[in-house]
Amino acid sequence: MTNFQASLPTASTPRMASPSHTGPAFAAEDDLPLPPALDPGANIALFLDFDGTLVEIADHPDAVVVAPRLAGMITALSRRLGGRLAIVTGRSIAALEALLGPVEVAVAGSHGGEFRSRAGAEVEPLADPLPAAVVAALERFAAANGGLLVEPKPFSVAVHYRRHPEALEGLLACAQILAQDGGLAMKHGKQVIELAMPGSDKGTAVTRFMGLPAFAGAAPLFLGDDVTDEDAFRAVRHLGGQGVLVGPMRATAAALRLPDVAAVHTWLEDGLASAPAAQPEGETRP
Ligand SMILES: O=P(O)(O)OC[C@H]1O[C@H](O[C@H]2O[C@H](CO)[C@@H](O)[C@H](O)[C@H]2O)[C@H](O)[C@@H](O)[C@@H]1O
Known about the structure:
- There is one protein chain.
- The protein has 8 helices and 12 strands.
- The protein has 2 domains: about 40-125 and about 200-275, Rossmann fold, CATH 3.40.50.1000; about 130-195, Alpha-Beta Plaits (2-Layer Sandwich).
- The longest helix is centred in the middle third of the chain and has 15 residues, at about 170-180.
- The protein starts with a helix and ends in a 12-residue tail after the last helix.
- The chain is globular.
- The chain is of the alpha/beta class.
- The strands form 2 sheets. Strands 5-4-3-2-1-10-11-12 form an 8-stranded mixed β-sheet, with helices on both faces. Strands 6-7-9-8 form a 4-stranded antiparallel β-sheet, covered by helices on one side.
- Strand 2 (about 85-90), helix 3 and strand 3 form a beta-alpha-beta unit.
- The structure holds the ligand O=P(O)(O)OC[C@H]1O[C@H](O[C@H]2O[C@H](CO)[C@@H](O)[C@H](O)[C@H]2O)[C@H](O)[C@@H](O)[C@@H]1O.
- Ligand L263DTV3 binds near residues 61 and 64.
- Removes the phosphate from trehalose 6-phosphate to produce free trehalose.
- Its cofactor is Mg(2+).
- GO terms for molecular function: metal ion binding; trehalose-phosphatase activity.
- Pathway: Glycan biosynthesis; trehalose biosynthesis.
């Protein structure tokens, strides 16, 4: 056990509502401690969600404001961690890099549907493409309901109802039928319903990273804000690590909490500032 793990509450903390790896570990009326200071010298692996964790939620997916230093900070932290850092996002990798710039780290995109094992590696598809007919059906629904925003991705499709909350009931019904008929996975994130081919989520993505030589043996930490991050919180708990919920308390499998995006940036910046200089290229773990 690393010093980092020893200082954290564990899955056997008495406040736990459920001992299983499948449900939330902590109830909404509990609260969770802050994570200890990030120590890039410890044998940890860091997994970072994007929307709501590294950038504030905005009214439109293209309207998020990315801090100018964010990509550089994440790349530098990844180097300090010997490559044991990945962004794990519901966005496609292309959409992520369009916002963040070409960040030189491992990435899982489209909720685990696409996977880049390390900086510079090819993007591997891990899911089958969604049938075009499903996207077309959702586009028809969106057009008939005030023009909901449809965001097709390589392995899933997101329909945003943030500007049309009145359409949620009909959207859920439409998506449920499409999911049932097509054997698809349905995810309900922040003001968004997503359909994807089954078999990949943020938990499977984290588990896949942890099976790579560069990540093996490290204690994983996953920072995320949305209910779609709960798969990853459960996965890291199962792998001997901890989830860090970002935002207000809710029922969660995370064991730690940071209050907001600003606190995440401070925690990462402080960790980076505390780290010794990065090893030269080529001396990181394979
Ligand atoms: O896993 P994440 O990195 O958190 O991505 C989840 C989804 O994020 C985006 O939608 C969310 O953020 C938008 C911008 O703040 C917001 O307008 C929307 O309501 C949120 O649901 C993205 O557009 C989706 O594709 C991601 O799956």
